[in-house]
Design a protein that fits this description.
With 224 residues, the chain is an all-alpha fold. It has 13 helices and no strands. The chain is globular, with a radius of gyration of 19 Å. The two termini are 20 Å apart. It binds a DNA duplex (13 and 12 nucleotides) through helix 2, helix 3, helix 6, helix 9 and helix 12.
Length: 224
DNA sequence: GCCCAGGGGGCTC
DNA sequence: GAGCCCCATGGG
């Protein structure tokens, strides 16, 4: 019942959008930096900031820690809240340096729950950011919840829309096979749907796959 | 000019 | 736990 519906939504989204190839990053370090910088900001601004960091040649834990705060602020200014985010980036780098000799892959190779707990202990890394890092950088099967997930699945009638982060995550985990590839693709597809003719701006868009899903009552996942 | 993006923390009640 | 404010850029 529920399990089929969560998978049906996935299938219909995948049929519509195709593979999303997430996370848009070349390295694990880039995933982590992007996950912090993307908080409450459009992704294009993150791309600008990452390009700035690469151009300045400070795109690794050691170099980034050596940049004076004022200079780091200017490099990541396009991502809003740049003073906070600069401190968060440095805190993360410091954890990797002090606990793992700067070995990022060793840091990410921890047992997933331990990694998540360690990430959550860093100020400025909450559940969504931590789970994004565990899923997309460490490639462990945790399901990432974001605001689109809350909005879309309550619109579909599968959830109430007022669940906590943990409760909604639990819904996905218990109704889907625990597969890192599926979790990776599903969250990316949810974001794609959220971006596509966004829910509040153009709810009547005839081509919106969300409305398509609603009209068909999620009953025919293979007919798209 | 106005709105809002791929959040999180701290505070209050 | 919910509600509110703070952080403070840039494109449509």
């Amino acid at each position: 019942m529920r399990e089929i519906r969560f998978l049906d939504v996935y299938k219909r989204l995948f049929n519509h959008f195709g593979p999303r190839h997430w996370w848009p990053a070349e390295t694990a370090f880039e995933v982590i930096v992007g996950a912090i910088l993307t908080q409450q900001v459009a992704w294009r601004n993150v791309e600008t900031a990452i390009a700035n960091l690469k151009r300045r040649n400070v795109f690794d834990p050691v170099s980034l820690l050596a940049v004076p705060d004022e200079e780091l602020w200017e490099l990541i200014r396009p991502t809003r809240f740049f003073r906070q985010k600069a401190a968060r980036l440095k805190d993360l780098c410091r954890v990797v340096m002090e606990g793992f000799d700067g070995d990022l892959s060793a840091f990410l190779a921890q047992e997933p729950n331990a990694l998540r707990t360690r990430l959550l202990a860093i100020r400025g890394i909450g559940k969504e950011t931590a789970d994004s890092i565990v899923l997309y950088a460490a490639k462990q099967p945790v399901f990432v919840i974001d605001s689109y997930t809350h909005r879309i699945f309550s619109r579909l009638g599968l959830t109430t829309g007022s669940e906590s982060y943990d409760a909604l995550q639990e819904q996905f985990v218990k109704n889907l096979p625990r597969d890192v590839g599926l979790f990776n693709e599903y969250h990316a597809l949810i974001v794609a749907l959220g971006h596509h003719i966004c829910l509040n701006r153009n709810p009547d868009c005839a081509r919106c796959p969300l409305n398509e899903l609603c009209r068909h009552g999620l009953s025919n996942p293979d007919a798209d």
